[in-house]
């Protein structure tokens, strides 16, 4: 709840682009055209809450297409000229375009749209005050003077459109959440199943209870067996997940081989990470793993609530929480043409780091327990 109760109040440098394509000559008595004036005003208004970025149309398209900005305010090429001729003709109304980025999530894109629309409205009112006091406006018809008071028409359109079956930009979050949940579930099933098969825990199914003969293996061997079982189960779950989401539900998805490989590696990394925690902490490890991978992972993922709209605590968690990086990688594959700068490269690096840490932690702690003689096998009288 702490991550969602007040997103507008927690805003911290939400990146929004301003695209100045205005190439008209400046108005009489002014050194810059209106596009440059609006851009300078917005850049100077950047604060701790909003970060305006001046980008060219090509740069803005790339930033929208990689999730670097949540939206944009676009000033067209003939903006100043259309404002200058408004007093004499209303055939061409000045237009400011608000570009949304639904691939960054509905809330983030909505916040950017609201901020950009407010900025465009304020710019229109400022231009209106300047225009209505000019000598040309005094001679203009009454209808033209009414238009001059608020001269700009504001339009909204997607800057980076998504398919109809993309969940309005939320399929990446839910898919990433499924990867984490599957990894956590596989770790639980493997931990319980292997221990039961080796005779270290009882097996219960409804009223039926059984206990297999205990196999004398050490902790390190047990951890290696669980790693192998997790790798095998992950192959099945990854395939079933893609069949269900892409094949049955029809989720918009490209780069299917890459999505399968990414899903497999991400799920296995989470599973091994949770398994290493179980090996270190025993039964309490399930609670610890749930806190690490799920409870703290969801609000710090940045997939539903932008990290720029959460408190500093969750932005700090996002530096190492798996779900944030996994969600960025899924989003890059589903929405941003699997571009590395959209978060996919960083996601692969974090998966590799998580995999390595899980194996090292699991092997280090189990070998330490074995060297200390902390055997799981307890000889009981018959």
Automatic annotation (TrEMBL):
It is found in: Cell membrane. The chain crosses the membrane at residues 172-190, 229-249, 261-280, 287-307, 347-366. Keywords: Cell membrane, Membrane, Transmembrane, Transmembrane helix. One of its GO terms (cellular component) is plasma membrane. PANTHER family: DOXORUBICIN RESISTANCE ABC TRANSPORTER PERMEASE PROTEIN DRRB, TRANSPORT PERMEASE YVFS-RELATED. Belongs to the ABC-2 integral membrane protein family. This is ABC transporter. It comes from Streptomyces gilvosporeus.
């Amino acid at each position: 709840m702490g991550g969602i109760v007040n997103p507008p109040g927690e805003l911290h440098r939400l990146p929004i682009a301003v695209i100045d394509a205005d190439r008209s000559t400046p108005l009489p008595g002014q050194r810059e055209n209106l596009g440059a004036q609006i851009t300078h005003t917005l850049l100077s208004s950047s604060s701790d809450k909003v970060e305006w970025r001046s980008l060219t149309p090509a740069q803005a398209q790339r930033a929208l297409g990689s999730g670097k900005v949540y939206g944009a305010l676009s000033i067209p090429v003939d903006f100043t000229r259309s404002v200058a001729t408004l007093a004499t003709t209303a055939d061409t109304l000045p237009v400011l375009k608000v570009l949304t980025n639904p691939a960054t999530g509905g809330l983030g894109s909505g916040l950017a749209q609201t901020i950009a629309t407010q900025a465009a409205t304020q710019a229109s009112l400022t231009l209106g005050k300047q225009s209505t006091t000019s000598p040309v406006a005094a001679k203009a018809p009454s209808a033209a003077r009414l238009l001059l008071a608020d001269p700009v028409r504001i339009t909204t359109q997607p800057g980076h459109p998504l398919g109809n079956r993309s969940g309005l930009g939320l399929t990446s979050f839910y898919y990433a959440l499924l990867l984490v949940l599957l990894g956590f579930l596989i770790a639980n099933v493997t931990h319980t199943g292997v221990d039961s098969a080796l005779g270290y825990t009882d097996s219960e199914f409804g009223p039926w209870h059984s206990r297999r003969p205990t196999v004398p293996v050490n902790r390190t061997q047990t951890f290696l067996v669980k790693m192998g079982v997790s790798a095998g189960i992950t192959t099945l779950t990854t395939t079933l997940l893609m069949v269900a989401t892409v094949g049955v539900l029809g989720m918009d998805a490209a780069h299917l081989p890459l999505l399968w490989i990414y899903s497999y590696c991400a799920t296995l990394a989470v599973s091994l990470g949770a398994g290493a925690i179980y090996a270190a902490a025993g039964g309490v490890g399930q609670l610890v793993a749930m806190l690490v991978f799920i409870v703290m992972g969801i609000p710090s993922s940045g997939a539903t609530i932008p990290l720029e709209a959460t408190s500093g605590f969750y932005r700090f968690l996002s530096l190492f929480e798996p779900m944030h990086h996994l969600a960025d990688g899924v989003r890059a594959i589903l929405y941003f043409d699997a571009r590395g700068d959209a978060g996919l490269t960083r996601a692969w690096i974090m998966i590799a780091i998580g995999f390595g840490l899980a194996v090292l932690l699991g092997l280090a702690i189990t070998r330490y327990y074995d060297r200390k003689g902390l055997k799981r096998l307890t000889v009981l009288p018959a």
